[in-house]
Amino acid sequence: MTRLTILEYPDPRLRTWAVPVGSVDAALRELIDDMLETMYAANGIGLAATQVDVHQRLLVADVSEGRNDPRVFINPEILGKDGTTTSQEGCLSVPGYYDEVERALSVRLRAIGRNGKPFEVELDGLLAICVQHEIDHLDGKLFVDYLSEMKRQRVRRKLEKDRRLRAEGGTPAPARAPAI
Ligand code: NI
Question: Of all helices (H) and strands (E), which one includes residue 1?
């Protein structure tokens, strides 16, 4: 398995609209395994293919405490949404920044699994938030798009400062919550 490089905001490749996956073959399953390894290594709870510069509609997630419940959603489609909830979100492509975002409380989803079989599922809680965040990635959208331009400027400055610090051999402040 290979650890992939995660694109960081404001990389324009994060704005790509991902195309549907054609077939669930060995190459795709290898990509899924690489994405899971990348997500776990980065201490993330979700990762969209867009974030590793693969522009296909695929996302992985694991919101379990034990980090032992990997979920795979290929060509995910939201069939319905219910309620609203606001929570602090972070993103592996916006490292070290968290802010409140409003999402649907529960979503009904259709997708294809790692085994190539289609399924439908009702999600709520953290996994529902995570999947909405990741589907946004597949549509070229980031959680900072929901914030004010002033906040986005602050985020860009912070990330630039962190990148400079890393280039100089320093370590930016560690993440205080899991990112998706
Ligand atoms: Ni994200």
Answer: none
Distance 111 CA to ligand 1 centre (A): 19
CB 19 within 8 A of CB 91: no
pLDDT digits (tens, 9 = 90+) for 27-79: 999 999 999 999 999 999 999 999 999 999 999 999 999 999 999 999 999 99
Q: Which two tokens stand for residue 41?
A: 């290594």
From 37, 77, 134, 149, active-site residue: 134
Provide the 10 A C-beta neighbour count for residue 111: 22
Distance 167 CA to ligand 1 centre (A): 23
Question: Is-catalytic flag, 100?
Answer: no
First to last CA, the chain: 21
Q: Model confidence over 66-113: pLDDT tens digits?
A: 999 999 999 999 999 999 999 999 999 999 999 999 999 999 999 999
Single-letter residue type at 127: L
